[in-house]
Design brief:
The chain has 197 residues and is an all-alpha fold. The chain is built from three helices and no strands.
Length: 197
């Protein structure tokens, strides 16, 4: 076996070492580059996350502000509507009170008018009753009552009874009818004699 010469061995060892060294340096440089790339990528990712977080925060803030504005507007609209309803209710209450006052005035007026009419009616009734009574008394005093008594009343009853009893045989009542006519004629003559004297 041939012993390597110290200079040749060094050279070949040096070449191997140089190659290894170059290889290691290249690897380390690649690792360093990868590490820097990774860190740069991490920084970019972090920046992007912060950007997204900021944008998302801004978006949430805009949404919150918008929602608050909508809510505020809705509350203001509701308050305005409530106030309008309250004012309308007050107006209606005042109108109802006014109508009630007016109705009470009318009621008092009509009660007063009714009382006056009742008083006048009572006075008129009293005067009318007094006048009627006075006129009735004057008529009574001026004219005597005429009392009438049926002429030949007994015969009249007998004839009527006979006609009822003999509805089919009215000729059987002719003697009573003749007596009744004779009685009526006598009464007429008596009266004429009493007047003419």
């Amino acid at each position: 076996m041939k012993e390597p010469s110290p200079s040749g061995g060094r050279q070949s060892r040096g070449a191997v070492n140089d190659e290894e060294l170059k290889k290691r340096i290249a690897e380390e440089l690649a690792l360093e580059r990868a590490r820097r790339d990774s860190e740069a990528q991490k920084r970019r990712l972090k920046q992007e996350q912060m950007y997204v977080r900021d944008e998302f925060g801004k978006l949430l803030e805009r949404e919150r502000i918008s929602s608050n504005e909508h809510l505020t507007r809705a509350i203001l609209r509701e308050r305005a509507a409530t106030e309008e309803e309250r004012q309308k209710a007050q107006r209606l209450a005042r109108q109802v009170e006014e109508k009630e006052r007016e109705l009470r005035k009318h009621d008092a007026y009509y009660k007063e008018q009714l009382a006056r009419l009742e008083e006048r009616s009572a006075q008129f009734y009293k005067v009318t009753t007094e006048q009627y009574q006075k006129a009735a008394d004057e008529v009574s005093a001026r004219f005597k009552r005429y009392e009438s008594h049926p002429i030949c009343g007994e015969l009249q009853e007998k004839i009527l009874q006979c006609y009822r009893d003999h509805a089919q045989e009215t000729l059987s009542c002719s003697a009573l009818a003749s007596q009744y006519l004779h009685c009526v004629n006598n009464a007429k003559q008596q009266r004429m004699l009493g007047r003419g004297g």
